[in-house]
Amino acid sequence: TEIFLTESLSQLENKISRLGSINLAAIEEYQIQNERKMHLDEQNEDLMDALETLMTAIKKIDKETRIRFKETYDQVNEGLQRLFPKIFGGGNAYLELTDDNLLETGVQIIARPPGKKNATIHLLSGGEKSLTAIALIFAIFELNPAPFCMLDEVDAPLDDANIYDIDGFPLEIELTKRVNLKIGSNDLHIFLDKEFSTNHIYI
User: Fold this and answer.
1) By the 8 A CB rule, do 84 and 92 touch?
2) Residue 66 C-beta-side C-alpha neighbours within 13 Å
3) What is the largest CA-CA distance in the chain?
4) Average pLDDT, the chain
5) Which of 68-72, 80-84, 163-167, 173-177 has the lowest mean pLDDT?
């Protein structure tokens, strides 16, 4: 038994020796680090909750944006298709999406004035671009009327016949108030009066 105890004591001394110097403050340091870890864990949990809330909000906004964009696009497209032939006396025009993803898509205008083939607005003449833009603007006006609009130099590429055609085509816009529209350098004014359902042109 004495030999056994001696060997056990020797083994224990070797184990203690392998431990090296003992840090008497280890317990206190452990408690400090453990408290810090718990604080960081709480912060991480708060961040994960905030991230989940943010992702939920983004998904909701994306969904509502797709719905509202599609509704607006369809209404403006319908207005453009209806007003374009009234300005040009024929032909047709429509909006076309460039991508299936409604959050990233662009919108291009396809127009066919009377006697011409379908083309993007970039291939039209200056006057045709101007008249197509007017049709698009009034299509947007139908969706969201404004009390005042100035189309600066929009008549520059137009001849006199085209300018008077603008006054002649029937604007079917539901207006909440009188709208003053000034078109360009010729000081041509069109006043739209909902009460009398008339268009007046002054030079």
Assistant:
1) yes
2) 11
3) 126
4) 78
5) 173-177
Q: Taking residues 190-201, report their average pLDDT.
A: 41
> Encoding tokens for residue 81?
């298709």
pTM over 0.70: no
Angle among Cα 146, 152, 154 to the nearest 5 degrees reads 100
How is residue 121 annotated by DSSP?
G
Residue tagged 């520059």 (tokens):
156
Least confident among 100-109, 124-133, 153-162: 153-162
For residue 170, what pLDDT is reported?
43
**Measured distance CA(153)–CA(182) in Å, rounded:** 10
Instruction: Provide the token pair at 92.
Output: 């047709």
Interior/surface letters 91-126, b for 16+ CB within 10 angstroms, e for the rest: bbbebeeeeeeeeeeeeebebbbeeeeeeeeeebee
CA angle, residues 136, 138, 144, in degrees to nearest 5? 110
CB 137 within 8 Å of CB 149? yes
Report the distance separating Cα 83 and Cα 165, nearest Å. 13
* pLDDT 10s digits, 41-86: 999 999 999 999 999 999 999 999 999 999 999 999 999 999 899 8
The structure tokens 């003449």 sit at 125
Q: Which amino acid is at 72?
A: T
Please give the structure tokens belonging to residue 42.
Answer: 């709480």
